[in-house]
Amino acid sequence: MLVLTRREGEWISIGDDVVVRVLSVKGDHVQLGVAAPREIAVFRGEIREQILAETEAARRSAADPSALSRLRPRKPR
Amino acid sequence: MTERSTVLLEHPLARGCRVEPGDLWSFPEGLIGFAQLVRFARVPLADAEPFELLASVDDPAFGIVLVDPRHLVPDYVLSLSSRDLAALDDPRPESVEIRVPVVLPADGGSLGLNLKGPIVFAPSGRVAVQRISRDEAHPVRFVPNLAGTGATSCSS
Lengths: 77, 156
Hints:
The complex is a heterodimer of chains A (about 80) and B (about 160). Helix content of chain A is about 25%, strand content about 25%. Chain A is an alpha+beta fold. In chain A, strand 2 (about 20-25) and strand 3 form a beta hairpin. In chain B, strands 3, 4, 5, 6, 7, 8, 9 and 10 form an 8-stranded antiparallel beta sheet that branches. In chain B, strands 1-2 form a two-stranded antiparallel sheet. The relative contact order of chain B is 0.17.
């Protein structure tokens, strides 16, 4: 892993068209600004883990066929 | 790996269902966190329409329930980038089908929809990918309010 030290207001470039700038540092919080083309997906790191955990919860719940009897959504308009 | 013969599903919600190889869906990237699962069958759940089962062929015990989010969140919109469409072999954007994973309710619990991690199906090539919604208003678990929506509730 590449490790870089940056100060407030400084930035790093990733490839030709992604820039990550350190906007502010307050205590243990670092505010970052990311400029990237729209087709580049940028998310907080924990989102992926949360989605994985939710898929695991969906898998566990689907293993109980009786849960289906509690589903009665409406039809789309 | 390409399936050449009829697949017999073993998941509890679709046990005994047979799926022709041409009806399977390819997930080139797998699901998020489950990259090894690349072949799936979609099975309508007749007793729980419009929910459907996404059953893995690679792991017969793996299956999750999906639903079109617009059934419960009528204004749900997923923005797809050109890169997303390329991963689906560039289907017409209006032809893709959006589904979200569902956590089925436990006794006394609530239904949960993963609006943050939708699955996008391109019927033209039978290819699908899971994406992370860019919309900050889409939570990982959305609990719909079923009151007054036509939901059936029973009390003793």
